[in-house]
Amino acid sequence: MLKRFTLELDEGCVRPAIQVSNYEDIVPALEMLDIHVPSPVLVIIGGASRLNSHDYARLQSLFIEVLAPLAQGLNMTVVDGGTDAGLMKLIGEARKALGATFPLLGIAPTGLADFPNTPFSLAEDNCHLESNHTHFILVPGYEWGSESSWMAKTATIVAAGKPSMAVLANGGEITWKDALQNVKALRPVIVVAGSGRTADVLAHAMNGDITDDRAQALIDSNLLRSIDMAQDFQTIAQTLHQILGG
Prior knowledge:
Number of helices: 8
Oligomer: single chain
Mean pLDDT: 94
Low-confidence stretches: none
Radius of gyration: 17 Å
Shape: globular
């Protein structure tokens, strides 16, 4: 039986959470967390590693000036991996900086989510949860990537026919799995060209320069779109609004 409980995060921050064991738990978990359904959804996938200070600052500004305002303005629910790292940290900090009110739902593997007085067993590569997230769902798993299918399925359930999209920036090996899960869910994936690593491999592949065989299946879905991180933010915001249907 599902039970709502609270997570005590950094600086005395308390957030509601539910631990699930199968996909059928998602709907009641969302109800217990008071996540509004249906709602437009923004899925955040990727990372923020190996960036120089200039590119990291640019990516950070993209979250503060474009993605968080987009979610706020369209009353979106944002779904990501919930940990205090990479893009998840950026969207959490952007939400705080904006004073936004949109739900920010973190979905993390039970065996890797680290927080004070955790009742769960932890692996060596565990990670703190990000305290600016508003809700958490803890899913089965002791490896990063265990959450990929859960994020995609949860986003589909929350959207329930409303517009949704995934934004992919930077990222490593797990990002390929995240992208594939969102494509399988028929969700547009917006690749941030110029953000490095997996995102740039995909951006180049979309222009015919395929250096990783995994890119072809994603491209064949016709669900990949790209934006250039160097573009002015107003243009990027307009593009994202168009992708979401105006």
